[in-house]
Write a structure and sequence with these properties.
By secondary structure, the protein is mainly alpha-helical. It is built from three helices and no strands.
Amino acid sequence: MEKLGINLGFLISQLINFSLLAVLLYMLLYKPILNMLNQRKERIARSMADVDAARESAAKAQQDYDRKIVEAQRKAQEIIGQAAQQGEQTRSAIVADAQREAEAIRQKARDEALQEKAHILAEVQSQIAGLSMLAAERVLGQAMDEGTQRRLIGQFLAELGPDPVREVPRSVRRN
């Protein structure tokens, strides 16, 4: 090989040096770099898995949130409906109470008016009887006994027309 210009000792030493260098580089550089790259690849894969899991978790959370929002809106509509129904019932009850009170007030006013009418009629009748007694005494010039007075008053009232006191209920006439 020397004819070709290759020194066999030098070539072997070069081959040994190259092999040693390749083994040293493999052990000191290539293996740690490969390990580091594999670890990085695993970290990236784990990160991607974590991102996918987080994305799925976020999607589930969004679905739960949307479901809860829909449920809350449904409950709110239910509560609004119940409140409206209760408001309508309360309004109806208030209107019914007001109508009952108004009718009671009207009835009380009617009763008071009838009592007042009976009282006024009794006073008027008493005054008419007194005035007719005075007129009769002056016309006749003498005092009459009570029986005659009552008879004359009865005749006078009969001539006036139907007894206005009869229109008043008996419970009122006794007063």
